[in-house]
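Repro:
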Amino acid sequence: MTESEPEQQNGLVTCRAGLERVIADELKELAIEVTRIGTRAVFFRTDRAGVYRANMGLRSALSVLLPIRRFNARNYDMLYFQSRKTFWHKMFSVDRTVRIDVNGGSSQLRNTQYVVHRVKDGIVDTFRKLCEGKRPSIDKRDPDVHVVVHLDGPRVTLCLDTSGVPLFKRGYRVEHGEAPLKEDLAAGILALSGWDGRMPLCDPMCGAGTFLFEGWMRATRRAPNLERRFAFESLFSYDPATHAAEQEALRSGIIDPPTGFELFGCERAPAAVRVMERIHREHFPEAPLRVEEMDFRALQTPPVGCFAVTNPPYGRRLGGGRSPDGDADSRGDLNRLYRDLGCHLRRIRQDGGSAAVLSAWEDAARTIGLEPTRRFTLYNGAIRCDLLCFS
């Protein structure tokens, strides 16, 4: 194979359930071939530059994995033997730290901790034999190399996670409020909502502004992870020149927002407003952000012709059911909040705007009082939610 014909490789992008089609579209926008759409995963084929580009440019993804070995393992000894046969020493150096995680499931390999233990033994013993008795260390918190073991019954796939730290960790949000919306989910919601990046974006209950900052990057076509480190930088195959070239190509694709574009948020919690102001100042100083420290119900005139997107309280804690927790008073408060939100969104629509609401409350659409034009099922952590789009 010549230098003009870079080696192609198969990989997969992991994501939250419901965002698979969004990921497929994002890969295509990055000129990466999509080969199959699975459940919480989208499979692709690309070259080394495409792997770097995917890590920097994907908005709604969790990680970019490269399968390195597939085999059947009916027991833990076979798992160790096959892991031991993998040429780990040709992928990364012995002084790199390693973390191993397991996903999927197998009736033969039910103990995930022992799966981690046997794969770790295989990696360590490979290095000991071929690197003069030396072995890499395990680091569960901040590893250089991340190995993912995918179980599908007796079928085992060993993968290198080229991302390392999950891709939703952009680096701009360190502080946050209770039960925050992750960046990848916010980006996926904006994609599904139909917002085209041209209408002003507003969030009547914006918290620390995740929707607004993700919207700014989408509107200006800014790759969300241009500046952070990735696990692929710890591999022998890492090519700094190719990485820099892809980084510069993505940076050159940034555009100015449309004339009159604005980000507008309402938030009544002073601590959340302070966090949002810090993020704006330190990471997105050029973004046209306007924030009102108030309850959205006290707002006299919402922005004209805007797209409203919000994640209102569900009335329950993470991990609970679809109905609100608490006593009759708290349920009444939730009803009033959603009715008032419906009135607010009707005003926005009357002024030529549109809206999208993410909620786990099963009565959200009825109480808002608007008929959704589209509805998607998504998951905020373990919580099943509905994304209600009112165009």
